[in-house]
Structure formats: structure tokens, C-alpha cells
Amino acid sequence: MKLKRLSILCAFMFAVTGCSTVNQCLQRADLSHLNQDKQADLNIGDEPTPPSDVAFPIAQDGLPAVDFIEENEKSSQNFDANVSTSLLTTNFSTKPLLLNAQPQIPPRPEPSDASNYVSLMGQNGRVITVWALARGNWLWAYASFESQDFGNIRNWKLEPSFSREHFRFINQQLGSCMQAYKNGLIHADCDPRNLAQDFELLPSNTGSVFIKSVSSNRCVTYNPVSNTGYSTLTLSPCTDQISALKDQNFYIAPPILKATPQN
């Protein structure tokens, strides 16, 4: 149900942004001048360096291995058990009932989170994920099959930032935030005052969104075609033009869960 509300939120963003076309949204006012504080040099280069052949995410600087808790395994937790199922058995051949005659959904016992966990999937099926677990390392886009051992570091929570039009992404497993850094994305300690962790979600007419960095005024970009199991994430000027080497369309998809075959 939370994902449903998230979809409604994305649809509502068309009205909030006031854009009639994708290009108008992509050319919104540049707010990068507000990011006055330069980020410290992390000595990881200006662009993502391709990971080694090690398949499993590596722990750097003595960071202990992460216990990948499958918080999303019980899919029933993602739905409200109190929702009436009477609507599912409605006879649609009859005239529609008045709104006040419809079955009422009981109120939730307590407020829910801003969103449950989601994955950020490119049009090539690869999702944004942490690879090196220590803060200050690059993010990548991995295919689900190629990242089976990654666990919940492939899932993110979408939360509103201090600005009504900005959002930030918090990693489910590590609690770190997605952050624009030079020509790519890293994950770092969350700081609500850090504009580099603020992003705009610009919806397109295909159901996808463009993830635009507020601090750099550029969009998250990936190479949809590659001969590896991953795509490189960079920041480049926002455009709706797609090629084999450049795409900026992402889909806010359900979280990637551990699959267990059933006999």
C-alpha cells in the first residue's frame, strides 16, 4: 500500500513541478549555486573506477562484514491486513455506489513511514546499489542476477528533504545516503544540511523518472548496454535522448527480495 501511495506521489509531482513536457522539467532552475561548501576530496578519482572481479561487495578500511537482514522477506508486512476485501468481489455489472456507501477502510493504528523500501531500476533492469561498503565509495548499477549476494544494499528508502521538491535516498542495509560527488554517486553519512544528498524526481510520460542532483544540476546517467554485469553511474546534463551509452530513465520499483524456490 505504501508503494501505491508512492506512485500517487510521483503522479502528483507533475502538478507540483508545473512542467508540461519532460524537457521543461529537465531545464528547471539551477540551484547548484546554493551548494557553497565544497566536498572534501575522497581520493577516489573524479569518476567511478570499475570494480574488480570480486562478485560480493567488499568491506574497506576494516569495516566489519554486514549481516544482510532480510527485513522485506515477509511480503505480507508490506500490506495492510485490515484492508477490506469486499471491493475485490464487487459485482461491476451493477451501478456504482455512492462514495459514502462504499466499504470503509479502517484507519491505520499508527502513522506509517514516508515510504517502504524500493529499488531504483534502469531500463536495462539494473538497479542502483552500493558495492564497497565503507562510506565514501562509488555506487553502481547491477543486474539482479549478478548481485544475488548483495542483499538489502540494493534497496533504498525515499524520504522528503528539507525542501518540498527534494528527496533523499537512504540505503536499507547501511543507513547511508546517496550523494552526488564530482562526476558520479557515492554513499555517505546522512546529513540533512548537505545539498549534495538532495535529488529531484522528474517524472516522464513513460512512467519513468529522471533523478536530478540538486547540487550539480545534472542527472544520474548509466550506460544501458555493456559487456559486464554492471553499469557505471555518472552525472551528466539532463536530456531525454537515449543511446547505447547513455540513458537517464529510472523506475521506482519494489524492493529486491530474497527468492526461495517452492516445490
Protein model, in words:
It is a single chain. The chain has 263 residues and is mainly beta. The chain has a domain at 113-253: Trefoil (Trefoil (Acidic Fibroblast Growth Factor, subunit A)), CATH 2.80.10.50. Helix content is 8%, strand content 24%. The chain has two helices and twelve strands, in the order ααββββββββββββ. Strands 2, 3, 6, 7, 10 and 11 form a six-stranded antiparallel β-sheet that branches. Strands 5-4-1-12 form a four-stranded antiparallel β-sheet, with no helix packed on it. β2 and β3 form a beta hairpin. The model is unreliable at 14-18 and 61-97 (pLDDT under 50).
- String of helices and strands: HHEEEEEEEEEEEE
Helix content: under 10%
Kindly provide the radius of gyration, computed on alpha-carbon positions and rounded to a whole number of angstroms.
20 Å
Overall structural class, as computed from helix and strand content, comes to mainly beta
For the sheet with most strands, the description reads: 6 strands, antiparallel
Question: Got a strand count?
Answer: 12
Q: State the separation between the terminal residues, measured CA to CA.
A: 29 Å
In the CATH hierarchy, the architecture of the domain at 113-253 is Trefoil
Q: For this structure, what is the CATH class of the domain at 113-253?
A: Mainly Beta
Uncertain residue segments:
14-18, 61-97
